Amino acid sequence: LAFWEMPEDLKSHFAQSKQVFVKGDANYRRQIGERHWPFDTPFDHISSYWPCPVCCLRTMKSECACGISKGEQARAEAEDKKWLVSGAFGVVQFSSVPQSS
Length: 101
Prior knowledge:
This protein is of the alpha+beta class. 30% of the residues lie in helices and 16% in strands. It contains 4 helices and 3 strands; from the N terminus they run H-E-H-H-E-H-E. The protein has helices at 8-15, 25-31, 43-47, 70-79, and strands at residues 20-23, 54-59, 90-95. Strands 1-2-3 form a 3-stranded mixed sheet.
């Protein structure tokens, strides 16, 4: 289940939070809907459904990713051909959602 399909009561609960942390590869994949986005798709574009700021902490263990510039991709690829799945690389990504007053 992608996080953008979260029930309304849970979304209302998160709306009262100052920030939510999403940790781990499986939860990160739920965050981006288990989709194979172009890796340079901005994290903000995919995470705009959250009713509060969200920060994802993830070790790369699958080929689902976003918010990684072409330069970062090239650097990782040069260092490790299996950078997407080796567990040697990770991301910390943040999306700030404007709070309504």
